[in-house]
């Protein structure tokens, strides 16, 4: 009896598998429709009122299959902003379930290529997906106008193609590209970049010499505060900006691991690469630097981004962090692409998730 029952079960499974195989195209299309339907729904509707930070790129110029170039989403209430636009920024935003069409502004920290080389695609996809008839604004320190002029020139032909193909009603040429808001910063002070009811975004100068200007940003929404360091060595103004902040997203570099790469470059007669490895630690902060700064500033939570160098093996994470987690008494972690951090209004809660 048991044997017959088992035979029957096996036969049913086999029959089901056969049906699934025969109908595989229909099943696959149904899955595609379900996924596409979910992806096209507005993800901002389901978010609680507060500040939300999405790490769409936590990498650096180093090739890293696990980390895209610098790219950070900040959502204040229902308004979504992008800070830096490294390569693959538009794709990473989509991968996290958001749309560049919903961007209300882009903020650039400085003009190193890894922070701006995805900007053209962000502008193009935002133009294609935006439905509210508002031109995007790109905010940046002195020099952003030249950057935007360059992208405008590079995309002139493509813009014309898309309007000709889809029509002006769908791709209005006047909404292509972006408006420019260029601002100045002075060491030791703050520049108001965007102010709305309940929202204040300020820029401050950081120490990324010889790169100048280079800025970080402080975002305050209904009493919750996030600070983005931008690229910088350990800097007193970052500490001042981050004082009592709920969350500090700070860049970090491991001198020990970079020194190992320098040694390897020398052994392989890669003198130019060895020189670059010897130079880069002097304008970045170490995890220990960040921990000391954050502890002194009484920051609530710290997430490291712009990770240098890549960390493909788990033990490398321990080497990278070193003694930093022992210095900073709050949550202190290495950020990953896809991390999503929520700071609801009305309390001090910080919620970590993945998208």
Question: What do you see in this structure?
Answer:
With 355 residues, the chain is α/β, with parallel strands linked by helices. It folds into 2 domains: 1-40; 44-354, Ribonuclease Z/Hydroxyacylglutathione hydrolase-like (Metallo-beta-lactamase, Chain A, 4-Layer Sandwich), CATH 3.60.15.10. It is 37% helix and 25% strand. The protein contains 13 helices and 15 strands. The protein has helices spanning 2-22, 24-40, 89-95, 113-116, 119-129, 144-154, 156-166, 236-241, 255-267, 271-279, 287-297, 314-321, 324-327; strands at 50-57, 71-76, 79-85, 103-107, 137-141, 179-183, 191-196, 199-205, 215-221, 224-228, 247-253, 301-308, 332-334, 339-344, 351-354. The strands form 2 sheets. An 8-stranded mixed beta sheet has the order 6-5-4-3-2-1-14-15. Helix 8 (236-241) links the parallel strand 10 (224-228) and strand 11. Helix 9 runs antiparallel to helix 10. The longest helix is centred in the N-terminal third of the chain and has 21 residues, at 2-22. 41% of the residues are buried. The mean pLDDT is 94.
């Amino acid at each position: 009896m048991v044997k017959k029952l088992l035979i029957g079960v096996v036969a049913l499974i086999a029959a089901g598998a056969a049906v699934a195989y025969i109908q595989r195209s229909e099943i696959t299309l149904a899955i595609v429709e379900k996924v596409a339907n979910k992806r096209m729904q507005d993800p901002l509707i389901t978010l609680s009122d507060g500040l939300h930070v999405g790490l769409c790129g936590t990498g650096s110029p180093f090739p890293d299959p696990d980390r895209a170039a610098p790219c950070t989403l900040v959502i204040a209430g229902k308004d979504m902003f992008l800070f830096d636009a490294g390569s693959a920024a538009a794709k990473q935003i989509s991968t996290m379930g958001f749309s560049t069409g919903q961007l209300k502004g882009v903020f650039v920290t400085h003009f190193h290529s890894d922070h701006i080389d995805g900007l053209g695609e962000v502008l193009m996809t935002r133009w294609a997906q935006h439905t509210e008839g508002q031109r995007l604004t790109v905010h940046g320190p002195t020099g952003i106008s030249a950057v935007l002029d360059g992208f405008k020139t590079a995309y002139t032909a493509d813009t014309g193609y898309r309007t000709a193909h889809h029509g002006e009603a769908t791709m209005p040429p006047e909404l292509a590209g972006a408006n420019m808001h260029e601002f100045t910063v002075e060491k030791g002070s703050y520049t108001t970049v965007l102010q709305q009811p309940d929202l204040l975004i300020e820029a401050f100068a950081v120490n990324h010499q010889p790169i100048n200007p280079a800025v970080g940003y402080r975002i305050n929404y209904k009493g919750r505060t996030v600070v983005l360091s931008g690229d910088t060595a350990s800097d007193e103004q970052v500490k001042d900006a981050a004082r009592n902040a709920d969350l500090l997203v700070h860049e970090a570099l491991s001198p020990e691991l970079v020194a190992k790469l320098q040694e390897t470059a020398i052994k392989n007669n890669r003198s130019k690469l060895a020189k670059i490895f010897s130079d880069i630690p002097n304008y970045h902060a170490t995890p220990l630097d960040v921990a000391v700064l954050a502890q002194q500033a009484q920051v609530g939570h710290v997430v490291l981004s712009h990770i240098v160098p890549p960390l493909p093996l788990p033990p490398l994470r321990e080497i990278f962090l070193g003694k930093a987690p022992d210095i900073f008494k709050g949550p202190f972690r290495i950020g990953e692409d896809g991390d999503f951090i929520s700071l609801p209004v009305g309390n001090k809660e910080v919620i970590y998730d993945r998208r």
